[in-house]
Amino acid sequence: MQEPTFLILASVADQPLHGYGIIRAVDELSDGDVKLRAGTLYGALERLAERGLIEVDREETVEGRLRRYYRITDSGAGALAVEIERLRRNAEAAEKRLSRRPKLSFGGAA
Amino acid sequence: MSLERRYRRLMLAYPGPYRTGHGADMVTTLLEMAEPGQTRPSRADAWHLVLSGLRQRFRLPSGRPLVLLAAVLITLIGGAFGAAAGSWAAEQTFTRLPGDSGVEALTRQVSGGGSEFTVSRSASPWWTGMASGHIDSPGWTPEAAQQRLTAAGWQVTAIERRDGTSFTMDPATGTGVEEKMRGAAFTAARDGLRLDVSGYVSAERGSISVVTWPADTGATRPLLVAGAVIGLLVGWLLAAAGAYRLGRQSVARRRLGVALTGLAVVASALPAFAFGVNVWRVFRYSDSMVFTVHSALNRGPYWSYGTPWMLLQLAVAAVVLAVVAWACVSVRPKAVSAADTSRAGSPAPAGD
Questions:
Q1: How confident is the model at residue B139, as a pLDDT?
Q2: Of B31, B56, B348, the CB nearest to A61
Q3: CB contact, 8 Å: A71 with chain B?
Q4: Per the CB < 8 Å rule, is A66 touching B28?
Q5: B141 with B191, same domain?
Q6: DSSP label at A61?
Q7: Could you tell me which chain B residue has the CA closest to the CA of A66?
Q8: Do B47 and B87 fall within a single domain?
Q9: Mean of pLDDT over chain B
Q10: Is there a single domain that holds both residue B5 and residue B81?
């Protein structure tokens, strides 16, 4: 799962969000690292919907504009949990290796 | 022009059905992302939107291996038909062959007299059409023929000797009679036409044949390649668009669309394969015949087990089936969209 896809799925994990809501949530989740563009967001939403990981929750019209809310499906929640576990495992394994690095060098030279 | 109109115009890069489904929602998001007072999209945003739209046109629904297989087949078939179209366009640049009287005049110019003129034309499945004149002229010599042709402005190649023997049956005794023949061949070119001249002369007979071809204008290969590339592209885009349109249809219509597409693919398989083999011939052979790709649709048979018009019939059937399949999947799906809006919490006017 690519990082934007992972973050989009995570952003709708607890509540349905509309397009702009997802973009803000992803920005927040990634601490400002990932700023989605609309084209990327909707491409990812389409793929996630095709794979049954998200679905349309509802549509609203605010000031004459259509807003569509997306929610995570059960299989999406499952896929997200699997991905979180995978990332946690990798991060922990990486951390363990890094902690075993001999601390002999002084300064920046490795 | 308002920011919204500008965004809507950039959204034209997306396929129509995609805009109908997601356009309004996407424009809402784009406007919410815009800075206060912004009147036009930033250059980077505009580019990104257009590229995302074009990419969407090339996308296939994910996780559908059969759709991918069908798309690959349709792409290859598109490439083959495109190559045939390019080859047809190239043939339009060829010099038109003279009529029967013109062929006779050319043949008599080569033979310098003679009798029993016959003409035949052939359209083969492999190369462009040619006209073949034949005449009997006992005292014929290739040198005299070349002199007459060069005087009329033809460029001739060196004479190639093809001496041999002929065997004829003596009608009285029924035994074979061996006869020495002087044979010669050369080609002549003028005004976009090429003559393949050959003559076999014995004591009593002189069999002269003049095959008239259009000279290759050099357009065949580039136009063939251009046609193939366009065909591949169109094939993939049609398959991708068709797959998404199919997915929006009711189950019954979807089955009909799949069946029609399957039949179109099956019908076009043999013509596409023949076109492919003809493409190989164009690049494999560069002398003698002027090979073309679309000639596979000429009266054949292309393969010994085919009927004369089999490939043309199959190609026409494939095109008709493909058009019907496209019409079938392009019908606006009323039932499906109604189900979609009823599932959504509050129905809203969809799209543009």
A1: 82
A2: B348
A3: no
A4: yes
A5: yes
A6: E
A7: B25
A8: no
A9: 86
A10: no
Q: B345, A41: Cβ pair inside 8 Å? A: no
Buried b (16+ CB within 10 A) or exposed e, A21-39: bbbebbbebbeeebebbbb
DSSP alpha helix (H) spans, B173-212? none
Q: How far apart are CA B61 and CA B329, in angstroms?
A: 15
- pLDDT category at A106 given cuts 50, 70, 90 is low
Q: State the architecture of A3-98 in CATH terms.
A: Orthogonal Bundle (1.10)
Strand partners of residue A18: A69
Give the phi and the psi of residue B283 in degrees, each rounded to 5. -85, -20
Which residues in chain B are closer than 8 Å to A39, comparing Cβ atoms?
A: 48-49, 51-53
Give ipTM to 2 decimals.
0.85
Whole-number mean pLDDT of chain A? 90
Within 13 Å, how many C-alpha atoms sit on residue B245's CB side? 23
Banded pLDDT at B351 (limits 50, 70, 90) = very low
Regarding whether B177 and B234 lie in a shared domain, the answer is: no
Provide the residue range defining the domain that includes B2.
1-59
The whole-number average pLDDT for the span B180-200 is: 89
Q: Measured between alpha carbons, how far is B18 from B338 in angstroms, rounded to an integer?
A: 17
CB contact under 8 A, A59 and B346: yes
Residues 6+ apart with CB under 8 A from B178: B165, B166, B167
Distance, in Å, from the CA atom of A12 to the CA atom of A19, rounded to the nearest integer, reads: 11
Q: Categorize the per-residue pLDDT at B333 as very low, low, confident or very high, splitting at 50, 70 and 90.
A: low
**CA of residue B316 relative to chain centroid, distance:** 13
Distance from the Cα of A51 to chain B's closest Cα (Å) equals 7
**Inter-chain residue contact A56 with B344, CB threshold 8 Å:** yes
Residue B349 lies in a domain: no
CB A4 within 8 A of CB A44: yes
Check CB contact under 8 Å for A46 and B22. Answer: yes
Give which of B25, B24, B12, B62 is closest to B243, Cα–Cα.
Answer: B62
Using a CB-CB distance cutoff of 8 angstroms, which residues of chain B are in contact with residue A47? 62
> How far apart are the C-alpha atoms of A99 and A79, rounded to whole Å?
30
Residues B273 and B236 in one domain: yes
Residues of B in contact with A66 (CB under 8 A): 24-25, 28, 348-351
Residue B349 has pLDDT above 60, yes or no: no
- Structure tokens of B63? 């996780």
Number of structural domains found in chain B: 3
Instruction: State the average pLDDT over residues B297-311.
Output: 83
CB contact under 8 A, A37 and B31: no
pLDDT at res. B126: 86
